[in-house]
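Hi again,

Forgot to attach this to my earlier email, sorry! This is the prediction with adenosine monophosphate bound. I've pasted everything inline since the attachment limit keeps bouncing my files.
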Amino acid sequence: MMMNVPLVLTSVLERAETIFPKKTVVSRTASGIQRYTYKEIGERTRALASALAELGVKRGDRVGTLAWNDHRHLEAYFAVPCMGAVLHTINIRLPKDHLSYIINHAEDKVLLVDRQFLPLIEAIKDELYTVRAFVILGDEAEVPETALAPVYAYESLIAAGDRRYRFPQDLDENEPSGMCYTSATTGLPKGVVYTHRSSVLHALTLGLVDTLGLSEADVCLPIVPMFHVNAWGTPYACTYFGSTLVLPGPNVTPKVIAELIEAEKVTTASGVPTVWLGLAKELQERPHKTDSLRAVICGGAAAPKGLIRLYEEKLGIPFIHAYGLTETSPLVSVARLKSYQNDLPEEEKWEIRATQGLIVPGLQAKLVGENGEAAWNGKEMGELWLRGPWVADEYYKDERSREAFTDGWLHTGDIATIDEEGFVKIVDRAKDLVKSGGEWISSVDLENALMAHEAVFEAAVIAVPHPKWQERPIACVVLKEPYQATTSKEDLLDYLRPQFAKWWLPDDIIFLDEIPKTSVGKFLKRALRERFKNHLTSASDPSMA
Ligand code: AMP
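Structure tokens for the complex follow:
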């Protein structure tokens, strides 16, 4: 029998403190670039834990953060769970009523709030029933003018804190370490609680060479916010492995990303497709040195094949497509070719690279269709169900758990196929599939095809009600500037025609200046559906003539 040593985040921090004390965390804050070694991060983390203990934070209490990706947020990532409390990362872009709902629902006792978000919290302070103290994150050691009380400056707490604070030695690996709320299609956000064990196992998985292969030699730039699924677990993985972390701070633009990649010699960066679309545009307009990059990691929404090819063929930057959910910590699958697939025709390889990939070691998947389990033949569709040590088994104190979990399996809400090789292809979110005359049309496939057109910057395909077919797809397209005067709806339909069955073609293509985005940068299809819900039923619509 082996030792039953608990998998706790304290061991992740201690490894960086003892083995990689000289490695650095680069943090872009409101006042510029700051550099800390893991030794310093460890000391500041312990000082923060001692200060939180002084403020009354006890084992199991929730501590909320409204913060950018910076060194202070990283310190909270360790101080809170390692002292036995629970880190609640709050999405700063939620509407006000959702913000107060999740803070009350999680029963946050202390809030760590970046200076920039003070107005956000001041506006809802009277609706927060459990918060006992506010800590203001910023480079200054003074407390700014604020209506919040009692209020403390983070840096003054760190200065006065105990840099040798000892974390409890009796943490159980199944104790909660963090929580994150995910937006529901309808209704209020749903809470997911991570444990020490799930966080450590998930971090280890990011180091596998067949997943993301994160290692000591990496310089990692998580652009995905630390308030969204723990920045995909990169802060924990990088600290564990001693990788250099580059935390991009507030107001990240494509220019900021390009400059950080060049200046810090970033090797891996992670973000949603819209981030990579923006960076590609920036790099094409203003070349930067990017040859340090060994991979950009793209997840959170489907990476169009055209985007992958643009990065690899035009920009010379390797591109990895991965898939996951808040409920799964998030890593579920990574699209890498199997060794014997390297000889396949180029086109087929791009197809595989644009799938959501192979389920990572540790997780199990199945497809559940209308008539039971669907076969793994690349054709039969079903809802993807998952289980594994870093998959949630319920929502936090939420009745909706009943619909989302069955016999130890999570229903992802994603409709997928899995082929004989095991590659998962997400056909659509269940709610985004277009049901036309009883047949399914994948909005994702149409979007990917459109986004491979040279004139198209972004494309979102939505289902709109149709009197005859129940629903039909329409495409909302943003054209790249130079093509705006010269590209017509017919050009795009002609381009799609050879690629799809006739009945898949969008009934209309609408040109927009911008596709509305969710708080984490994904297409906000709900808003488009609402805006265009009468598009095919109104008298002026040509398809009704
Ligand atoms: P969230 O919990 O906000 O991270 O959203 C999770 C959802 O994003 C999944 O259920 C998918 O619908 C979608 N998603 C994440 N990654 C991908 C991907 N690589 N391809 C397609 N959809 C994705």
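The chain has three domains: 9-167+176-246, 253-329+343-431, 432-544. The first strand starts at residue 24 and ends at 29.

That should be everything now.

G.
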